[in-house]
Structures are given as structure tokens and as C-alpha cells.
Write a structure and sequence with these properties.
Blueprint: E1 3-4, E2 8-11, H1 18-25, H2 28-34, H3 42-50, E3 58-63, E4 66-78, E5 84-91, H4 100-115, E6 120-126, H5 130-138, E7 142-152, E8 157-167
Parallel strand pairs: 5-6
Antiparallel strand pairs: 1-2, 2-3, 3-4, 4-5, 6-8, 7-8
Helix pairs in contact: 1-3
The protein binds coenzyme A (COA).
The site of coenzyme A has 20 residues, from helix 2, strand 5, helix 4 and helix 5.
Length: about 170
């Protein structure tokens, strides 16, 4: 499935994205705050594309002007609560602060509530990630809870994590 916005195309990852993924995902400024280790080589990026990026609900973010070149990723994954999913996203550093994450999140919210008929969306950010907090607030997420010292398995550490929540406004859900 492909989702279009004013400036973006959200689409499935494919193996041709490997070079760009590695370019963007080897950057610790992206990886550390997204919660995974920076990619060390292209094999790691290819393996990611072949496995977790093939799961349902994972979208590459690309620009409409150049849909073959990814600029980030956004995902809608199962959460513990029924009728609820958790959203995660990252945008490559050269593309920060141009409203792309805000626009991609808006599109995923519309998809989640309008097409998948979910009731609740959860998103979370590490303490101090003010950019991501803004992206969530721009899209009307509100504070829900803070967990101090929550384990982050992929990074082999623990962090203070702020959880945000958005409820569907539709009675039909
Ligand atoms: C967080 C991230 C997704 C934001 O993507 P983006 O495309 O730059 O986001 P947008 O441009 O839509 O919005 C960013 C907002 O944060 C603001 N912002 C950025 N850095 C900030 C900072 N250090 N302090 C306060 N606000 C900040 C921007 O000004 C902007 O707000 P505005 O539109 O009101 O001006 C991107 O920086 C990223 O991928 N970072 C690394 C991975 C990550 O943190 N993922 C999210 C995990 S929860």
C-alpha cells in the first residue's frame, strides 16, 4: 500500500533502497534517538530491508519529487492495548526541520483511524528529544505517562521515555 501527502510518498521498502538507507542509518544522530544501533555496513541495511522493513505497517518515507530516494521511515506496530498501535519514525539528518516527520505522521494517523479503524495511537520519545515531542504535539498527541529507566534492548541501556497518546474522534470506531 502507498500513501501520498502533499510532498511525500509513503511506500514499502525494497532492496534498491539499500544505499540510501545505509547513508542515513549509519548516522548516530538518527539511530541513537530512534532507539537502534547505527548501521555499520550495507549488509546490515540490506538485512533490515529484508526482515523488519517487510513487516506490515512499515513505510519508507520518500519525496514526491523523487520517490525512489528514501528520506526516512515510519511504522505502525502492534501495541499491548486492543484497537491500538504504536507509531515510530525517523527522518535522515539532511532533511530535518522541514516538516516532513509532521507530515508523515499526519498521513499515518489518517490511515490508522480512517482505514484501519483503530481507536488509539501511542508514540513515545526519549527524554530530551524535543524535536520528536514537537512532531507529536503538532499532530495533537497528548502526554500519557513517563517511564524512568525503561530498558532499551537494542541499545543495551535504559532511558526515561515519555509516552504520548491520540484517541480517534470518530464515533464509528
Ligand atoms: C525527530 C525527527 C523525526 C523530526 O523530524 P523532522 O522531519 O525534522 O520534524 P519536523 O520538521 O516535522 O518537526 C520538527 C519540529 O521540532 C522542532 N525542533 C527540532 N529540534 C528541536 C530542538 N532541539 N528543540 C526544540 N524543538 C526542536 C522543529 O523546530 C520543528 O518544530 P516547528 O515545526 O514547530 O518549527 C528527526 O529529527 C529524527 O528522525 N531524529 C532522529 C530519530 C528520532 O528521534 N526519531 C523519533 C523517535 S521518537
Amino acid at each position: 500500500m502507498e500513501i501520498q501527502t502533499e510532498r511525500l510518498v509513503l511506500r514499502k521498502f525494497n532492496e534498491k533502497d539499500v544505499d540510501r538507507l545505509f547513508e542515513l542509518a549509519k548516522n548516530p544522530n538518527v539511530a541513537d534517538t530512534a532507539g537502534w544501533p547505527a548501521h555499520q555496513n550495507k549488509e546490515e541495511s540490506l538485512n533490515t530491508i529484508r526482515t523488519i522493513f517487510q513487516e506490515d505497517g512499515v513505510f519508507a518515507i520518500s519525496l514526491k519529487d523523487n520517490p525512489d530516494e528514501i528520506i526516512g521511515a515510519i511504522s505502525l506496530k502492534n501495541s499491548h492495548e486492543p484497537h491500538s498501535k504504536e507509531i515510530g519514525y525517523w527522518v535522515g539528518e539532511p532533511y530535518w526541520n522541514q516538516g516532513y516527520a509532521t507530515e508523515a505522521l499526519q498521513a499515518i494517523i489518517n490511515h490508522a483511524f480512517g482505514y484501519l479503524h483503530l481507536r488509539t495511537l501511542i508514540a513515545r520519545y526519549y527524554d530530551g528529544n524535543f524535536g520528536s515531542q514537537k512532531v507529536m504535539e503538532h499532530n495533537n498527541f497528548s502526554f500519557f505517562k513517563t517511564v524512568v529507566d525503561e530498558p532499551v534492548l537494542l541499545l543495551n541501556t535504559s532511558k526515561t521515555i515519555h509516552y504520548m497518546k491520540l484517541e480517534s474522534q470518530s464515533d464509528a470506531n
